[in-house]
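My current task is to audit a protein record that another person submitted. What it holds is a sequence and that sequence's fold in token form. Thanks in advance; the entry in question is below.
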Amino acid sequence: MSRYAMETARWIRHATMDDFEAIMPVYAYARKRMAETGNPRQWGDKYPLPERIREDIAGGHTMLLVDDAAGMDQIPEDPAYPEPELDEHKGSHERIIGVFALFHDPEPDYKVIDGSWLDDRPYTTIHRVAASGLGRHAAGDLLDWSMRRYENIRADTGLKNYAMQHILETHGFTRCGNIIMPENKEIENVRVAYQRHDRPLDLAERERAAKHLVAV
């Protein structure tokens, strides 16, 4: 592999507590971009709180999309690189391109939905997706990586987060309705819920999904 390819290739790894200080500015950048694009209430000024980030890392939930291009004099804006795969090594000139949290237990806030999930089978949840602004297509890479590993995925995003809604829908996620997050005066508590799975729906699931799509 050439030096160029090595430096621009991306990979996925679990975050450790050593990454905490590098993760904080990524979420700060994401909050700033949300506010600039008319979505200031999804995360407000503080979400996710430092204790939430530490808890995600400690539980092995936080995943990082990284490259090793920090030492390059000129970093290509949109290089061609292979699909990122899981690789737990830390680059010597590493940059965080994106971050998200991955959970395999049922999400308590998804029990009640104004709408209907595609099914009630076990699922993986994606939370707290953020890009650092250092590379393009971060959210898409994270979703693609997750979709290659898990057949049933749920996620939610803000009512005004049209960019993330577009990314989810172009990656085959179905808009299932709205959910209510715990009351927090600093952020909005209504979120748009999405689900995607790669197995065929049975008849009852197809009918439920069709009814919801008509209602939406």
User: Anything to note?
Assistant: The chain has one domain: 3-215. Confidence is low (pLDDT under 50) at residues 1-6, 212-216.
